Amino acid sequence: MVLLQGALIGAAPAAWAAEGDLFLNNQPVPEVLTATRLRQAPAAVPGSISVVDRALIRASGARELPELLRLVPGMLVVPNGNISTVNYHGSSARQARRLQVLVDGRSVYRAGFAQVDWHDIPVAIEDIERIEVFRGPNTVSYGANALMAVVNIITVPPAESEGTRLKYGAGGRGISDWYASQALHWDGGDLRLSLSGRQEEGFYQRGDGTDQRDGRRLNRFHLSADHSLGAWQTLEGHLALKEGSSQMNNTYQSILPIAPQPSESDADSDVTARDFAASLRWSLEPSSRHSLQVQANLQQWERLRSWRACDAQIIFSPELRELWSLASQPQRDAFLASGIFTPQTPRQRELYLDGVIPQLISLTDPATGLQAHTCGVINEDIRENRVDIEAQSTLSLNDDLRLVSGASYRYDAAYSETHLNDRQNRDVWRLFGHLEWYLSERWLLQAGAMGEYDSNVGRSLSPRVAVNYLITPAHGLRAVYTEAVRSPDMFENDADWNYRVTDLRPAALGQRDAYYFMSARGPGDLRQERIHSHELGYNGRFQRLGLNLDVKLFHDEISDLISHEPKIYRFDPDNRSRLILEGVETEIDWQLGLSDRLRLGYAYIQADASHPLDQVITPRHSGSLAWLRDWGGNWNSSLIYYGADGLNGYRFERMDLRLAKRVRMGTAELELAGVLQQRLDDEPLSGADNHYEHRHLFYLTVDLSF
Fold first, then answer.
1. N or C: which end of the chain has fewer CB within 10 A?
2. What span is annotated as the signal peptide, if there is one (predicted)?
């Protein structure tokens, strides 16, 4: 979707070249890519951006992407069994609806169900070059769903991969990880093939003391290649495959007091996942001032889940199903609470008195008073497809003026018999542009907009304007105003939620296949969520001190917010909620000589939400503190603290220690590393059912390159 790699090198006024910088010491300023699709110095970015580089990724010892994002100020990781969501500044705890997540320019945000499957993204930690996180709304550059932030995962270029690499890790909680890669190089081209797998047992038990069945495993294939077609053209391609499974407890319970659940049911309802992604990017640079890129992406996600459960036969009554569809929400609530329905129309009285009540009597054993029950198979398979094509032009009009512009088309389709009654799809067309104009050697004006047409919600326009005052090329003040949107996903807006239960044994009211009596439909007229964001900030790089500093003050107002917990007996998403977020963030990255590196991330957030779901997830204080140390003799260590004073209502504090030793063996290099994670709090991990057997975790890795 997003074409970043071929953007032109950031231009700055010629006057800077002649001016010495007391703090910069005349060294090149590192550049970032994600903010505007242009390569820019961090001081010139219209917003706040964090970079988790390769050294930090390795030193963290992280096994999964969400763990790396704990290093980013304001980013919150919320586990729920074997599913984790990552949110910026909070809002919904159950889904990361408001983040755009990219892997090498390809969006992995699932538009059908507003999800990012963080544990299932088919990219290994070992293949990641850097993660750039734009901390703020960025629909201007990336379209709807970049409402709160953008996470851009950039993999190692094949040209920088050498030879063979083998890695294995094992430890507590059933951890068993492996990785293997091979790089090939030829005249004008490079290729890297990597295979990887991961497995672990998950949490130990629920809050009630029962076993928690939430282990997961996956295997991944990733092929990355590039080839030069001449002096001005290159091709870059990626192919990714993933298969895996996640354990899920069968927690089905009858919802009617008149129909208690029998004890028979499958113990599990596991999810099988299969993903496919392919992308191809063509880049052309006809001159030093102009570049063109065209990228095409094809993706498919499959989440397959089929499980067996038991209930009273009355819940498959066609009359009860029609009665439910005609009932108001207060009638439904009273019926679920007491088992008694109060008809209000002639048709309701007919269905209840002449249909449901006689059926209920006929299915009741007069000797025991127990309801006749049955068991059947429930199918919750979900499939999503995407085709995405984008063209981008980057033009340097002169030394002070650059323009990036482009257009894209995306087709999304989601298939689910249960949640969508077969299929929903949408077409999204986009036009975007961003102008960077140096008004003088110190004043930088930036303005951009994204115009978008979504076949499900109509047209939208998302503008941004920013003014940067550059004290030097490496030190800048910024003021930014942004508007951004999030489109309701297909399930929120167009749900047709029905459970068709098959292979009923014994037959329910004479039916082998029947529908569960409850159903729900989406409103069909949801509007886009919209944010008005205000930011003041400073970014500076003190080259002589090895110090990078970013400070952000923000005030964000989100209106038309869709806040709901999807339950079939009360499914009523609407645009009535709102959320105000304000606070301060800071990030310090300090290289203390050749041996030590300190990194601090901190966020103070005040949230004022009209819906309790959007209030409980946001901690007032959260952050991380890392110390990386090279001890000499090929020994290195890292010590990292993570904390939040109220993550989904629970305090979270953890200390991670990693100690590693590198050994040279001729042309090969072996690294042995141990990681210890120690919880410093005594609370569940962001949820009442998330309990580990021990407060600590230890695992070892062996990494061989040759």
1. C
2. 1-17
Tell whether the torsion through CA atoms of 141, 143, 147 and 153 is positive or negative: negative
Amino acid occupying residue 21:
D
Beta strands in 147-215 (DSSP E): 149-155, 164-171, 175-186, 189-200
pLDDT tens string 223-256: 999 999 988 999 999 999 999 999 987 778 777 7
The torsion region of residue 560 among left (phi > 0), alpha (psi -120 to 50) and beta comes to left
Listed in sequence order, the residues at least 6 apart from 527 whose beta carbon sits closer than 8 Å to its beta carbon are 457, 488, 560, 575
Both tokens of 11, joined, read 């231009």
CB proximity list for 199: less than 8 A, separation 6 or greater: 174, 175, 176, 177, 215, 216, 217, 218
Structure tokens at 512: 């082998």
Please write the tens of the pLDDT for every residue from 149-199.
999 999 999 999 989 999 999 999 999 999 999 999 999 999 999 999 999
Coil/strand/helix, residue 337: helix
Ranges of each domain in the chain: 14-305+380-488+526-705
Residues 49 and 135: beta-carbon distance below 8 Å: yes
Average pLDDT along the chain: 90
Which whole-number Å values give the CA distances from 480 to 431, 467, 471, 601, in the listed order? 21, 7, 17, 21
